[in-house]
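Q: What residues go here?
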């Protein structure tokens, strides 16, 4: 019987999120070999009491593939598709294929393709028979439509308990015989999407270096990138890419000239720099991270955190890390472009908004600005300068120097009598009542970086002013944070914070006792899924979600403090959470699955920097400037 009232409402509402509606099919003429409407769960196909069949005809003489739209609440079991001459006679089967639900990813929904091989008679009527087996009590259904489908043939429902056997139904199942082109799953319609894949909002990126388009999880299943590119190879073998000058992707034949040109260009860009890593997994992750960061970088230098609406803004923090990663891997133009955007979007007082629209027009809302940007941007500028080719880099630095000066001066003025900055939201984007380490540590890195840049340009007064501020801040951190193991806030009331890693290279020279603080903080924040939470503030819960950026903080810190083996193990965990396209997600849920958005540009940058450090090419750390010797006047002698 029809089972729409009972089957899979929650699962399928998730599975269909972001999936285009089925395209209307023109009135069918003989042969009737499929229709794509699939808005309703029509028939249970669980054996032994249920099955379904669809009559069809073909014009050709061979079958190579059949597809049906299935929804399964069961994670285990099998689904069998048979092509029969006689609907009720298994002995008349001319082709049969059984697929394992676990191999499909477990519970989920979408088009399932069954490869078959059989000779058939053109114009003859056959029956596509579908039946599933599972020991689970959850439903498995064949979807379709109750709308009229002109020229269609009968759909049959087998329900022993309800009909007493087979029943001809007015509904029409969703199926294709020998699907080609857009009928293949993964093009306009999703292949079978495991419910677990839907924990993430996005799964990948297409780009033409101007426009960017997210690959939705429902269209990433069974797909893969053409190596060294953002061109997607679909399950059908065709390619999806974002053509130059276009704002929407298209599906083309493999080896399409436009797509090939894009592949060649991105591979040449990768070859112009370096792809770091000591293992194949690290190199693959670094390559994908670099390509994803490039896709998130806009022509004006804005760097999107991710490519889902709430992430499609430019944060100074995220952009700073991306700029350093680009510079460190030989992609100077991209790094400098980000810094130029920072210079243009800096506020008159030397600070930055928490985030801006990607066109640089300003903030999208009234989110409170965050002082840590005044540390991250000068630190990134210093890292770019150190990596840049010597020829002309001083002149290019001078173009950015007004930005550095305003940022460093504001940071220096912000320090109180205790040497610490005021309370400000940091990367948690939450207010604290007292100073937090997520602001203090980046400001220390930024002041030291600014002082060194000033000295390199021969601007001694600036260098002394910021060097003095850095010494005051360093002393304040040692006095207030070090006794607390570099916890989240100086009042000691907000637990541990993964920002303890910001006190390590390549941000700051590790102070005495930092190793123990890193160890104890990591243990305190470690979750059952193997990653870490940003913090354990008693007043705020991150839930069971591990943050890949926070976890990577520790890998980077340990790679810079002589604990390469430990850093490698943490990095291995992060890399193990890449999705099917090889993208790094923002979070990992309690079940150990990628969640939120993928890719996240910040995690991409951290992975690249850690891979560089592990292969023996760590980023330098801004030096603390020694106090200048003060001139003295020798006393004059008397009579």
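A:
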């Amino acid at each position: 019987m029809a089972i729409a009232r009972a089957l899979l409402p929650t699962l399928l509402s998730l599975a269909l999120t972001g999936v285009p509606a089925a395209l209307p099919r023109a009135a069918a003429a003989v042969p009737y070999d499929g229709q794509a409407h699939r808005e309703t769960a029509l028939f249970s196909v669980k054996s032994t009491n249920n099955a379904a069949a669809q009559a069809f005809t073909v014009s050709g003489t061979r079958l190579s593939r059949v597809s049906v739209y299935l929804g399964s609440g069961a994670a285990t079991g099998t689904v069998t598709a048979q092509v029969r001459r006689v609907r009720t006679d298994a002995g008349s089967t001319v082709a049969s294929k059984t697929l394992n639900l676990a191999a499909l990813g477990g519970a989920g929904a979408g088009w399932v393709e069954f490869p078959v091989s059989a000779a058939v008679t053109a114009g003859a009527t056959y029956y596509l028979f579908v039946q599933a087996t599972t020991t689970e009590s959850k439903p498995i259904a064949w979807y379709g439509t109750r709308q009229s489908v002109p020229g269609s043939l009968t759909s049959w429902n087998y329900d022993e308990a309800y009909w007493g056997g087979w029943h001809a139904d007015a509904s029409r199942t969703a199926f294709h015989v020998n699907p080609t082109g857009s009928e293949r799953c993964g093009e306009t319609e999703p292949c079978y999407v495991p419910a677990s894949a839907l924990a993430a909002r996005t799964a990948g990126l297409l780009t033409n270096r101007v426009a960017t388009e997210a690959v939705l999880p429902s269209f990433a299943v069974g797909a893969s990138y053409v190596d060294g590119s953002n061109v997607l190879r679909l399950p059908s073998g065709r390619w999806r890419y974002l053509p130059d000058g276009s704002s929407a992707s298209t599906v083309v034949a493999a080896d399409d000239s436009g797509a090939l040109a894009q592949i060649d260009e991105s591979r040449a860009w990768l070859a112009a720099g370096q792809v770091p890593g000591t293992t194949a997994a690290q190199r693959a992750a670094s390559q994908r991270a670099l390509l994803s960061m490039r896709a998130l970088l806009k022509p004006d230098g804005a760097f999107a955190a991710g490519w889902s609406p709430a992430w499609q803004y430019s944060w100074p923090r995220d952009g700073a890390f991306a700029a350093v990663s680009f510079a460190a891997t030989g992609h100077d133009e991209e790094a400098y472009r980000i810094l130029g955007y920072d210079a243009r979007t800096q506020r008159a007082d030397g600070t930055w908004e928490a985030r801006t629209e990607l066109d640089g027009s300003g903030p999208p809302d009234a989110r409170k600005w965050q002082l840590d940007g005044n540390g991250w941007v000068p630190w990134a500028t210093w890292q770019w300068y150190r990596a840049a080719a010597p020829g002309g880099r001083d002149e290019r630095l001078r173009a950015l120097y007004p930005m550095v000066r305003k940022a460093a001066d504001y940071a220096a003025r912000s320090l109180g009598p205790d040497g610490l900055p005021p309370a400000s939201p940091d990367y948690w984007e939450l207010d604290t009542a007292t100073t937090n380490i997520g602001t203090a540590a980046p400001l220390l890195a930024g002041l030291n970086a600014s002082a060194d840049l000033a000295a390199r340009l021969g601007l001694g007064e600036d260098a002394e002013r910021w060097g003095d501020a850095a010494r005051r801040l360093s002393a304040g951190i040692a006095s207030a944070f070090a006794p607390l193991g570099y916890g989240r806030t100086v009042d000691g009331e907000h637990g541990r914070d993964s920002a303890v890693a910001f006190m390590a290279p390549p941000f700051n020279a590790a102070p005495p006792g930092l190793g123990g603080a890193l160890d104890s903080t990591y243990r305190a924040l470690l979750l059952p899924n193997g990653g870490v939470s940003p913090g354990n503030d008693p007043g705020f819960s991150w839930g069971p979600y591990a943050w890949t950026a926070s976890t990577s903080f520790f890998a980077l810190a340990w790679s810079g403090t002589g604990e390469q083996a430990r850093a490698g193990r943490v990095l291995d965990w992060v890399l193990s959470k890449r999705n099917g396209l090889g993208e790094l997600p923002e979070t990992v849920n309690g079940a150990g699955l990628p969640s939120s958005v993928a890719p996240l540009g910040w995690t991409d940058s951290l992975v690249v920097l850690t891979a560089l450090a592990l292969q023996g090419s760590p980023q330098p750390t801004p030096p603390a400037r020694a106090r200048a010797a003060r001139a003295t006047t020798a006393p004059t002698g008397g009579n």
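A: Context that may help when evaluating the design: The CA atoms of residues 145 and 172 lie 5 Å apart. The radius of gyration is 30 Å.
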